[in-house]
């Protein structure tokens, strides 16, 4: 019995020692070199901007399989990386002495349902590649998950951090797989795996007006990601946390927008995505993130509407 306890204690100790210690002080002295996969999507470009401002332009390498615009190339380092090519990924990690890997490559829910076998390859095989690499080179690895990692058997209002998941989309299934694999590698090998479940980021008019979903502005999502990556390991009770800012329905969003756009009219055309949304959480309980590492959202529905209108106006003026 004692021997078993001793073995257990030494396993725990060596596991704790093998976790790379990135204190906030250490990060200030030598900012991390960060690789973002799937970086030319909705989150990646904004994320690179955010982290380059914080750690320096050349500290963040954006990568994807898409040909970049001139603007992307002039903003900072960009490389071709196919998530299915282990050796290619490995070369970049070694050549550029990567410390943190932010893994955004994925096929999302609607596209994934249209091409399940490709979603399995990109979302599941791709995850296998990055997690092995992170283990081999002791990288801190961030993998976003989603409210889509829950399903019709999950409690929906509110959805706690730990509960029944059982999603019914390949996207959701691949995200549960990523969460569990990451936790397993953390407990087995001491991998510094971190995962936030983000709510939706944009307005979806292909839903019924009364469909309630958790939401957050991308600026809050990126701040959550960046703050979460700097939390000392000893504060993290979990490797996977729900985060959110608010919950609203398309109708409530339209009401909030009509304060600024009184002439706004919306038509609702629910399609197959309604069924997916009906299986997702309505209210996301992120109290554990608030408790463990002080997560606080800054932007509520009114701020979101103001920012959205400002951004659309700027885009129209530029064009
Ligand atoms: N946007 C959201 O509201 C939201 C919410 C929750 C979670 N997430 C997660 O955040 C991550 C990024 O989301 P997003 O909205 O930017 O997605 P996105 O679809 O806009 O971008 C995904 C990127 O992955 C790339 N990709 C596809 N196949 C690849 C391959 N073989 N190799 C390398 N890259 C490949 C695509 O080219 C694309 O640029 C995803 O993992 C997603 O699940 C996003």
Shape, please?
globular
Q: Number of DSSP helices? A: 13
Listed once per kind, the bound small molecules are: nicotinamide-adenine-dinucleotide
Oligomeric state, counting identical vs distinct chains = single chain
Integer tally of domains: 1
The CATH homologous superfamily is called NAD(P)-binding Rossmann-like Domain
Separation of termini? 72 Å
Text of the CATH class: Alpha Beta
CATH architecture term:
3-Layer(aba) Sandwich
Mean pLDDT over the residues? 90
- Main structural class: alpha/beta
Strand content: 5-15%
InterPro entries: Epimerase_deHydtase, NAD(P)-bd_dom_sf, NAD(P)_epim/dehydratase
GO biological process, one term: L-threonine catabolic process
Protein name: L-threonine dehydrogenase
Family: Belongs to the NAD(P)-dependent epimerase/dehydratase family.
Task: Record the SSE blueprint.
Layout: H1 2-18, H2 24-29, E1 34-37, H3 44-55, E2 60-64, H4 70-75, E3 78-80, H5 86-95, E4 100-103, H6 109-114, H7 116-136, E5 140-142, E6 145-146, H8 170-189, E7 192-198, E8 213-215, H9 218-230, E9 240-242, E10 246-248, H10 250-258, H11 273-278, H12 287-293, H13 301-318
Parallel strand pairs: 1-2, 1-4, 2-3, 4-5, 5-7, 6-7, 7-9
Antiparallel strand pairs: 8-10
Helix pairs in contact: 3-9, 7-8
The structure holds nicotinamide-adenine-dinucleotide.
Residues 37-38, 40-44, 64-66, 81-84, 104-106, 108, 122, 144, 146, 198, 200-201 line the site of nicotinamide-adenine-dinucleotide.
Domain NAD-dependent epimerase/dehydratase: 34-198
Pfam family, one: Epimerase
GO molecular function: L-threonine 3-dehydrogenase activity
């Amino acid at each position: 019995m004692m021997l078993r306890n001793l073995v257990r204690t030494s396993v725990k100790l060596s596991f704790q020692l093998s976790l790379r210690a990135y204190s906030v002080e250490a990060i200030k002295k030598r900012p991390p070199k960060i690789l973002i996969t799937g970086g030319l999507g909705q989150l990646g470009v904004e994320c690179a901007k955010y982290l380059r401002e914080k750690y320096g332009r050349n500290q963040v390498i954006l990568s994807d399989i898409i040909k970049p615009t001139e603007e992307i190339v002039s903003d900072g380092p960009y490389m071709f990386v196919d998530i299915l090519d282990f050796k290619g990924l490995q070369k970049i990690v070694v050549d550029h002495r990567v410390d943190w890997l932010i893994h955004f490559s994925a096929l999302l829910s609607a596209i994934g349902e249209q091409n399940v076998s490709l979603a399995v390859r990109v979302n599941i095989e791709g995850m296998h590649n990055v997690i092995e690499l992170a283990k081999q080179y002791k990288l801190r690895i961030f993998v976003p998950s989603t409210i889509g990692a829950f399903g019709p058997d999950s409690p929906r209002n509110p959805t706690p951090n730990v509960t029944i998941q059982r999603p019914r989309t390949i996207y959701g299934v691949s995200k549960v797989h990523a969460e569990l694999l990451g936790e397993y590698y953390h407990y087995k090998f001491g991998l510094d795996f971190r995962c936030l479940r983000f709510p939706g980021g944009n307005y979806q008019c292909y839903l019924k007006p009364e469909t309630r979903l958790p939401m957050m502005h991308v600026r809050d999502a990126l701040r959550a990601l960046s703050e979460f990556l700097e939390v000392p390991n000893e504060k993290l009770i979990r490797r996977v946390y729900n985060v959110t800012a608010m919950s609203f329905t398309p109708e409530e969003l339209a009401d909030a927008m009509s304060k600024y756009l009184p002439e706004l009219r919306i038509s609702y055309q629910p399609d197959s995505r309604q069924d997916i949304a009906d299986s997702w959480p309505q209210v996301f309980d992120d109290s554990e993130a608030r408790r463990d590492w002080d997560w606080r959202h800054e932007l509520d529905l009114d701020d979101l509407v103001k920012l959205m209108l400002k951004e659309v106006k700027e885009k129209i003026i530029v064009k």
